[in-house]
Design the sequence.
């Protein structure tokens, strides 16, 4: 009966491992860096007045220049311990104590350094070409009252420039004037954040006239603004013009890398240039990640250093003991002119010098080509296997998987904790207006998919409601209730409340309309899908928002005064109090045509209810019940409210608002404080409920990952009820689990909050959270100590989490969380997401993966060991910050269980094989030292030692790292439990390294003593006994054959490349030795191979020695596989007769796609951005249409192609003119 070595289970009788972190451990979660103080003063259109030396507009993304390449490049290479070690060995080999010629060690080091520097130079040269193309792009600058074209690199701060439609902004510009009469322009920020929806920017009314070159030359404004920083969405400053100070905001700033749309041209003043632009400042300080296995590899290298030191010390002491004048035949009895290394009169010097000799002699024990080989393997794995996997290609959006770094491939095979955003990651982020509550009445008859899942969970059968024939369903709107459609709301009990509800939807937003002024053809450009869905809902209810200017919103209202009447109404927008993650609400102050002043506000229920004139009236209580009902159905909710304003009260408030807006210091904070003064005493209108459906395959993906031993945590900003039901729908939690809920929505906490004492609230919350954590932790321990207790899950909201992350409670939270199968954190901020990730990463020291799709997930993605970005509806900021990018959450199954597991297995085998083959090679030399009186006499020829790593054993290990797989991709997903071997680090433990070391010692003894013993009485064809170089050449031949055959014994998969590489390496040795021994007249190996091959002994030894050497490994592997099999070996036995179709997911099987999908995939494989950053300002801008035309693939042109094509055309014309 066979027993599995590791099984598919765990430790405490229930297949679960009980986690416990010592309470004494300190977990640091990091801190926020403060921004530099001060401001800069810029004189526009007056270069002489700008006495301060600002940076130029030329950018450089290269790492080196012509002077720094060699010193800096070599410094980068010698930061690696192994390279520094070989530099020391190379220096030692040039000294008299070295037994080998300098070439022996210098050649391999030079080859490795040369390969690395060539790679660095090529990548930097590509960056240089991109920099040149960008820096030489033309821009129109005002010179002597006319527009003059100059390269971007010659721009200076204060210059006045003109940018035409579809052009890119060459620097950060202050927007002055445009061809649009209302002083606005439309920009696309895709190169900054990936968002393709247009943004509106509005110049100050004072500067609208500075449009023509004549008028622009009169502009002499002074700008006082913040110092350069990397915040893309904030800007504070003042423009002093004609002795008047005007506040500047992000609405007047045009950022480098953005492009102008739907505007003929604009005029702007340069504020920040070159590396001081916001987009370039965002390119700094990208966290550098190293895989856990790579860090363990450093420990292995240090261990080998220790072994090397012990070997050298043993030999040095042996030399000091052996040296004696009685060995007169060695010349040791000579009193004068004796080499200090062999002077019996000073044994301490003998030991010291012999130590250095042996260090040089045994230097190959550290594999010099290890790092280069591993880098090459990882690069090919990511670029050829991950990027080309059709199982991770999303045909609908034409998005393949993208490995943005190759450093972390094997880390994908050891992930234990996944931290996931909800919206856009687990769900589709395709928002649809589904239900609403107006004046205490629920409208909308549909049943959502999560609501159906909840009902099924409770054992209820839900029949899907049949939609009425008049139901409207378009993008963003999936609402069915005849009571509100086509003016029927006029007959409801609360028509005035309905009217305010619809007007709030139509007016309180920052959406931009595009296209014709008809409901069927108009398109809305919104900052988020929620915004677009709400405006679309207003349109379908008869309040059609069709035009926007900086100060007006135009709405076509139907059925307001009487049924069938349609009228266009213009609302003047006086102030917009924008949404942010702190405020969690958005407000608009507008003036009706009849002069009525109204503040409309929409936001999260928690912040709206705090600001109501009476939140405990019947309407407030009823709406709160409706919010809970919508949340339980997994719907996203917003509350709507309004407030009528008096003219005097508004004027007083507006003065404070303008003053706050003009402030250079803490502007955002002051604006929030001013907003609090007017956003109060609101009247509740109702709430909206938007459905965001689950992504395809999410439940099955989560179930598969859970079986693989991966614990999934959901970190979301949604309400707890919504998050819980999404978790149920995803199968993250179920009714069989024991749920620990720590919520701030309790009567006791509400009572304390109602008193308003912030100190008391904080004290009470911390104490409550502490007690809840202790109670849950104790209960969890009781469940974990039972044999068949339920799985555990923790649900905690943002307020409680804030106190739970306190240093005094952090470890208790961690201990509780680690013993839960899943954790759901609700109402959390982006910072809390990063803190929770860091808590597990640093506190539990487990390998973590964060996955998200929005800008609010960037900090979480960068905090984890591995960051995965989803290219979804919320732009590309998450992708730009990630290590790997995929289009759908379900692709995590292939990324982790297939590519991650294979990469981990391959890198482990590559590293252990490198260790084995170099130790075997060096130990043969070590055994020889015992027979030479520890003198340091070399056993191998210098060239044999030099080429052992770089030619005779180099290629097979790379093939092993590329093509090795234990089971197919299909079986990896069918048996996700196999993934647990990576979590446990089964294949790179010290026990595994020790096993390889043991057999390396055994094989080296066989290789040395069998050859030495068998050749001691052997004779060559001329009757002479074999000499040193005959024996060493025979031994080296056996070493090369043995280690190459041993690699084949490690393989689970054999391809033609395995046979070619192993056979080719052995053949390369014979070809080399034939040529070398024939031409090396002054070497001891001259004609040695010809003499050896003329004897029967050579062929017998070549057959028997490797067989005997590998016999121990063969028996060990047989016993291990039969009696102590790994999990993958059991699966291999079960499916040993099934064919392997694992390559079916790669590009070679293109005929599995439809013609349209094949074309999309071909476009997706064109050269594209691989940098940590994307965008025009960075290296390698994607210009796929050019590459597509080169490869005969039809691809639509992209906006960012324009300048590249222009620069290419200009260069080609120049070349033709020459």
Sequence:
């Amino acid at each position: 009966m066979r027993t599995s070595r590791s099984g598919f289970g765990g430790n405490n009788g229930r297949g679960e491992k009980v986690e416990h972190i010592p309470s004494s451990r300190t977990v640091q979660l990091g801190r926020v860096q403060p921004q530099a103080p001060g401001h800069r003063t810029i004189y526009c259109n007056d270069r002489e007045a700008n006495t301060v030396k600002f940076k130029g507009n030329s950018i450089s993304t290269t790492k080196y220049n012509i002077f720094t390449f060699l010193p800096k490049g070599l410094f980068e290479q010698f930061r690696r311990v192994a390279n520094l070690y070989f530099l020391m060995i190379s220096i030692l080999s040039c000294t008299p104590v070295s037994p080998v010629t300098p070439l022996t060690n210098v050649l391999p080091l030079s080859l490795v350094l040369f390969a690395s520097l060539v790679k660095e130079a090529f990548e930097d040269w590509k960056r240089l070409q991109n920099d040149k193309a960008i820096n030489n792009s033309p821009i129109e600058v005002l010179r002597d009252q006319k527009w003059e074209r100059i390269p971007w690199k010659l721009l200076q701060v204060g210059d006045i420039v003109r940018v035409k439609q579809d052009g890119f902004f060459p620097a950060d510009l202050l927007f002055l004037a445009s061809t649009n009469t209302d002083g606005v322009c439309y920009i696309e920020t895709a190169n900054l954040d990936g968002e393709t929806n247009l943004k509106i920017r509005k110049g100050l009314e004072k500067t609208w006239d500075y449009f023509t070159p004549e008028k622009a030359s009169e502009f002499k404004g002074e700008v006082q603004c913040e110092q350069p920083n990397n915040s893309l969405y904030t800007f504070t400053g003042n423009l002093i013009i004609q002795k008047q100070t005007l506040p500047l905001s992000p609405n007047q700033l045009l950022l480098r890398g953005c492009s102008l749309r739907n505007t003929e041209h604009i005029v702007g003043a340069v504020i920040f240039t070159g590396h001081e632009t916001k987009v370039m400042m965002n390119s700094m300080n990208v966290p550098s990640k190293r895989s856990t296995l790579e860090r363990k590899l450093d420990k292995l290298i240090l261990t080998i250093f220790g072994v090397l030191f012990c070997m050298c010390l043993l030999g040095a002491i042996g030399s000091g003991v052996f040296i004696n004048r009685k060995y007169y035949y060695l010349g040791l009895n000579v009193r004068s002119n004796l080499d200090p290394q062999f002077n019996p009169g000073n044994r301490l010097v003998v030991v010291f010098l012999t130590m250095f000799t042996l260090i040089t002699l045994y230097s190959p024990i550290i594999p010099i080509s290890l790092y280069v080989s591993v880098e090459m393997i990882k690069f090919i794995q990511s670029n050829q296997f991950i990027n080309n996997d059709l199982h991770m290609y999303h045909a609908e959006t034409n998005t393949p998987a993208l490995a943005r770094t190759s450093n972390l491939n094997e880390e994908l095979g050891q992930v234990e904790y996944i931290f996931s955003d909800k919206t856009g990651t687990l769900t589709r982020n395709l928002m649809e207006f589904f239900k609403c509550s107006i004046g205490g009445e629920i409208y909308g008859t549909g049943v959502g998919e999560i609501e159906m899942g909840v009902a099924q969970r409770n054992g209820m059968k839900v029949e899907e409601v049949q939609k009425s024939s008049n139901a409207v369903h378009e993008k963003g709107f999936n609402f069915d209730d005849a009571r509100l459609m086509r003016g029927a709301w006029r007959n409801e009990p609360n028509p005035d409340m309905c009217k305010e509800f619809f007007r709030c939807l139509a007016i309180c937003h920052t959406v931009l309309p595009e296209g014709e002024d008809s409901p069927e053809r108009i398109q809305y450009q919104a900052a988020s899908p929620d915004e677009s869905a709400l405006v679309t809902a207003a349109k379908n209810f008869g309040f059609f928002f069709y035009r926007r200017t900086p100060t007006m919103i135009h709405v076509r209202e139907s059925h307001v005064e009487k049924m069938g009447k349609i009228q266009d109404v213009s609302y003047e927008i006086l102030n917009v109090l924008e949404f942010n993650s702190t405020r969690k609400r958005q407000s608009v102050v507008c003036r009706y045509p009849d002069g009525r002043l109204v503040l409309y506000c929409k936001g999260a229920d928690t912040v709206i209810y705090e600001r109501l004139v009476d939140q405990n009236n019947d309407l407030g209580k009823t709406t709160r019940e409706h919010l809970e009902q919508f949340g339980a159905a997994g719907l996203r909710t917003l509350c709507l409210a309004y407030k009528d304003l008096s003219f005097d009260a508004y004027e007083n408030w507006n003065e404070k608002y303008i003053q706050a807006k003009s402030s250079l210091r803490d502007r955002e904070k002051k604006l929030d404080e001013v907003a609090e003064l007017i956003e109060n005493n609101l009247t509740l209108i109702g709430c909206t409920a938007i459905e965001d459906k689950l992504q395809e395959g999410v439940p099955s993906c989560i179930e598969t990952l859970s079986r693989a031993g991966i614990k999934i945590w959901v970190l979301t900003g949604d309400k707890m009820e919504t998050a819980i039901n999404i978790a149920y729908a995803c199968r993250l939690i179920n009714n069989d689990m024991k749920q620990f809920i720590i919520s701030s929505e309790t009567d006791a906490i509400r009572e304390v909050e109602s008193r308003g004492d912030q100190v008391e609230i904080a004290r009470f919350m911390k104490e409550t959270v502490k007690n809840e954590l202790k109670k849950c932790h104790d209960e969890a321990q009781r469940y974990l100590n039972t044999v068949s207790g339920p799985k555990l899950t923790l649900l905690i909201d943002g307020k409680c989490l804030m106190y739970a992350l306190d240093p005094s409670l952090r470890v208790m939270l961690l201990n509780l969380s680690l013993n839960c199968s899943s954790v759901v954190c609700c109402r959390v901020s982006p910072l809390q997401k990063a803190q929770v990730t860091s808590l597990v990463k640093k506190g539990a020291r487990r390998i973590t993966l964060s996955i998200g799709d929005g800008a609010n997930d960037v900090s979480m993605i960068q905090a984890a060991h591995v960051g995965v970005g989803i290219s979804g509806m919320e732009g590309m900021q998450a992708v730009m910050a990630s290590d790997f990018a995929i289009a759908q959450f379900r692709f995590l199954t292939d990324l982790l269980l297939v590519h991650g597991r294979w990469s981990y297995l391959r890198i482990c085998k590559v590293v252990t094989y490198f260790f084995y083959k170099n130790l075997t090679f060096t130990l043969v030399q070590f055994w020889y030292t015992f027979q030479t009186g520890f003198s340091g006499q070399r056993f191998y020829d210098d060239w044999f030692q030099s080429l052992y790593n770089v030619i005779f054993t180099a290629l097979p290990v790379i093939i092993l790292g590329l093509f090795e797989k234990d089971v197919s991709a299909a079986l990896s997903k069918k048996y996700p439990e196999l993934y647990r071997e990576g979590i446990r680090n089964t294949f790179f433990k010290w026990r595994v390294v020790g096993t390889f070391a043991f057999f390396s010692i055994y094989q080296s003894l066989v290789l040395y003593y069998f050859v030495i013993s068998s050749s001691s009485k052997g004779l060559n064809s001329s009757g002479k006994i074999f000499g040193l170089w005959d024996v060493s050449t025979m031994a080296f031949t056996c070493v090369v054959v043995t280690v190459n055959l041993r690699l084949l014994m490690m393989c689970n998969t054999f391809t033609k490349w395995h046979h070619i590489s192993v056979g080719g390496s052995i053949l390369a040795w014979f070809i080399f030795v034939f040529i070398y021994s024939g031409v090396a007249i002054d070497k001891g190996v001259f004609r040695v191979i010809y003499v050896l091959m003329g004897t029967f002994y050579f062929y017998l030894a070549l057959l028997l020695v490797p067989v005997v050497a590998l016999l121990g490994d063969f028996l060990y592997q047989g016993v291990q596989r039969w009696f102590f099999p790994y999990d993958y070996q059991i699966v291999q036995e079960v499916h040993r007769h099934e064919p392997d179709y694992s390559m079916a997911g790669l590009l070679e099987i293109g005929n599995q796609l439809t013609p349209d999908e094949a074309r999309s995939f071909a476009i997706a494989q064109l050269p594209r951005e691989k940098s940590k950053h994307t965008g025009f300002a960075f290296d390698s801008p994607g210009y796929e249409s050019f590459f597509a035309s080169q490869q005969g693939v039809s691809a639509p042109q992209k906006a960012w192609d324009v300048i590249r094509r222009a620069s290419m055309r200009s260069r080609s014309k120049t070349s033709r003119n020459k």
